[in-house]
Amino acid sequence: MIRVADSIRKIKADRLISITSIKKGEENTLYYHFSWDKKPEIKEFSVKVPKGEEAESIIGIFENAALLEAEVTELFGVKFKGNEYSGKRLFQAEKGGTA
User: Fold this and answer.
1) Which of 15, 45, 69, 99 could form a disulfide with 93 if both were Cys (CB 3.0 to 4.6 A apart)?
2) d(Cα 88, Cα 71) in Å, to the nearest integer?
3) CATH H-level, domain 5-81: superfamily
């Protein structure tokens, strides 16, 4: 498992804005974007996740990570340990079904 929570706690951000992923070859790079209420700044934190590895969920820090992580799982195949939605289809229909 790729650990990210401790590094993200050190950022001490007020908000998680988004989680995005870029797939290159056999790995995904996850980009976490954060902001603060009292300063006009956005900070990015990134981590590489090799194929077959899971990333640590950050739901315990930012609750809105639940759906952002689920979206990354659905679109890029990266699973998040500790996220009950990771691996479930939320946005795309199952084969033969409708959304």
Assistant:
1) 99
2) 10
3) NADH:ubiquinone oxidoreductase Nqo5 subunit (3.30.460.80)
